[in-house]
Specification:
The complex is a heterodimer of chains A (about 260) and B (about 280).
Chain A: H1 2-28, H2 45-51, H3 56-85, H4 90-105, H5 108-122, H6 128-152, H7 156-164, H8 169-198, H9 201-206, H10 213-222, H11 228-252
Chain B: H1 2-36, E1 40-42, E2 45-47, H2 53-61, H3 63-94, H4 96-110, H5 114-125, H6 130-137, H7 152-176, H8 180-188, H9 193-221, H10 225-231, H11 238-245, H12 252-280
Antiparallel strand pairs in B: 1-2
Helix pairs in contact in B: 2-12, 3-4, 3-7, 3-9, 4-7, 5-7, 5-10, 7-9, 7-10, 8-9, 9-12, 11-12
Classes of the chains: A mainly alpha (about 260), B mainly alpha (about 280).
Chain lengths: ~260, ~280
């Protein structure tokens, strides 16, 4: 009896977390413009409506540019830092992880407004570049966390033996460390990309002009009922959840 | 000597870029934002100053909204942390296929769809939404219930749903680190399951419980999208007031002062919650 109750509670919580995403995906294929049950039929019309919007291609291109750049740069910078942090003594590495993790705790609104006012003071013009720079702050901690965890449970004897055989640091990285941590790096990059692609608040304040997929959702929400918003939401959820699922699979391979 | 110099150059090369991101794109903007909160505004121009006028104005005009924001954020953080602990404990204690399923669902909903989730809730809770149309369709109510949407309850519901995965993961991490030997020992000494939970498990989870609470509290206190989309006119939170200082009203120093007042209030509430957790959940 207790077990049945606990299972029911677990399922209810999963439904509570998943329901909004599931409904958006479901209704993006629904014939009726209203999101009500029973559904009257299936259609791809809302996807056609979305693709025929003038602002969709630009938003998609901006999202791809930002997401791709942030994924690459955050992974590169975060991995370098993780290689240093993983070699620190436990107390120091915990401090470093805490310090670099601070941007994860900061509400995105505060991060966005602080960066916005600094850029305004320095005279930096808002563009995709400012969005990319701001996205580095909250994606990098995830990369550092994931990669340093992987580096810590990795056998240092392999690096030592490569070094004893006369390999320089770069050769050691290229031939020993990198091949071992490659799946983790892809995983970390995908997580960074998923976070960047999904961000609305920071992008909204720092993009200046133009749209990304989430800011396009915001714009469409203000113009009233438009079911192609479900199609757009489904695209965002597919990209972000798909990237995260792939990342989890990649980083789990070792376990 | 050259070895040490080379080693320090290597640390700079490894840490430099990440430190630059943290320093120039996180710490420096926050310090500048704090400086700006002491400036004043004249004819839409910021004038350097060292005045507390913005803070006096925030405390005089926005004490109500700050208290409301802190109260709703504390409620959301408390509900989310408790539910998340139950789920995390279920994943940890049950394990197996069901545990893996719960963990998988948590990880998948963690990423993706902040804005999508919020607007989806709008269509779930709305007048023509899934809940109302089902209730009316089943004949359980005659009229759709308007109060589901555009109320503080809607904000609580939406944010708890959004924040749950963020709270579950640190708690599950803490539970996984609990030494099974100490659980066995407690059980062998005759402790009941509730006793084991209270005396052996919960005290070890205090840091993770505090982290979950802090994360949920801060993300709520700084949110302006959820109250805007599902809160209606009665649920204006500090995020909305702050955001409006950067839009229509264009008073950056006042917005900065609001932000830091909200942050300081948040840190106080989180500190109190942490002290409370430590006091009530300490090992006996």
């Amino acid at each position: 009896m207790r077990k049945i109750l606990s299972t029911a509670f677990g399922l209810a919580i999963v439904a509570f977390m998943l329901a909004p995403l599931a409904l958006v995906v479901l209704f993006s294929f629904g014939k009726s413009a209203l999101m009500t049950f029973p559904m009257t039929g299936l259609t791809l019309d809302w996807y056609r409506a979305l693709l025929s919007r003038d602002d969709f291609a630009g938003a998609l291109a901006n999202s791809l540019i930002i997401t791709g750049t942030v994924g690459l740069v955050a992974t590169a910078i975060g991995t370098l830092a993780a290689m240093f942090i993983a070699r620190l003594r436990p107390a120091r590495s915990a401090t470093a992880i805490f310090l670099f993790g601070l941007p994860m705790m900061m509400p995105p609104l505060v991060l966005a407004l602080a960066i916005l006012s600094l850029f305004a003071m320095v005279g930096v013009k808002l563009s995709l570049v400012t969005v990319i720079l701001a996205h580095l702050t909250f994606t990098m901690p995830f990369v550092i966390l994931i990669v340093s965890a992987r580096l810590r449970d990795f056998n240092p004897a392999m690096v030592d033996s490569a070094r004893d055989l006369g390999a320089g640091p770069w050769t050691v990285f290229r031939t020993v460390t990198f091949p071992i941590i490659r799946p983790t790096l892809f995983g970390a990059a995908l997580i960074a990309m998923s976070l960047s692609l999904d961000d609305f608040v920071i992008t909204f304040f720092l993009i200046g002009g133009g749209n990304t997929l989430p800011t396009l959702v915001w714009g469409m929400l203000r113009t009233g009922i438009d079911p192609s918003i479900n199609a757009l939401g489904t695209l965002i959820v597919t990209f972000t959840v798909g990237a995260a699922a792939l990342a989890l699979w990649l980083t789990r391979q070792r376990a | 000597m050259t070895g040490r110099i080379r080693a320090s150059w290597r640390s700079v090369a490894l840490m430099g870029p990440a430190a630059a991101v943290l320093g120039f794109l996180f710490l420096l903007p926050l310090v500048w934002f704090l400086v700006v909160s002491f400036y004043r505004v004249q004819l839409f121009q910021m004038i350097p100053d060292a005045s507390l006028a913005n803070y006096t104005k925030v405390l005089a005009d926005y004490a109500g909204p700050i208290a409301f924001t802190a109260a709703i954020a504390a409620a959301i953080a408390a509900i989310t942390t408790v539910l998340a602990f139950v789920v995390a404990h279920m994943i940890w204690a049950r394990g197996g296929a069901f545990g893996a399923f719960l963990l998988g669902a948590t990880l998948l909903t963690l990423f993706g769809g902040y804005l999508v989730k919020i607007y989806a809730w709008r269509t779930i809770l709305g007048r023509e939404g899934v809940i109302n149309s089902t209730l009316v369709g089943l004949g359980l109510v005659k009229q759709p219930i308007d109060a589901l949407l555009y109320s503080p309850t809607a904000v609580v519901l939406v944010l708890v749903s959004y924040l749950l995965p963020f709270a579950i993961l640190p708690l599950y991490g803490a539970l996984r680190a609990v030494d099974p030997v100490s659980i066995e020992a407690a059980r062998d000494l005759g402790a009941t399951p509730a006793g084991v939970l209270r005396d052996a498990v919960l005290p070890l989870c205090v840091p993770a419980l505090a982290t979950s609470f802090a994360l949920c509290f801060l993300l709520t206190a700084g949110d302006f999208v959820t109250p805007r989309l599902v809160g209606g006119t009665q649920t204006f939170m500090m995020g909305n007031f702050i955001e409006s200082q950067f839009g229509l009203r264009m008073n950056v120093p006042l917005g900065a002062a609001m932000t830091f007042t909200t942050l300081v209030t948040s840190v106080c509430v989180i500190g109190a919650a942490w002290a409370g957790l430590r006091h009530f959940l300490r090992a006996k």
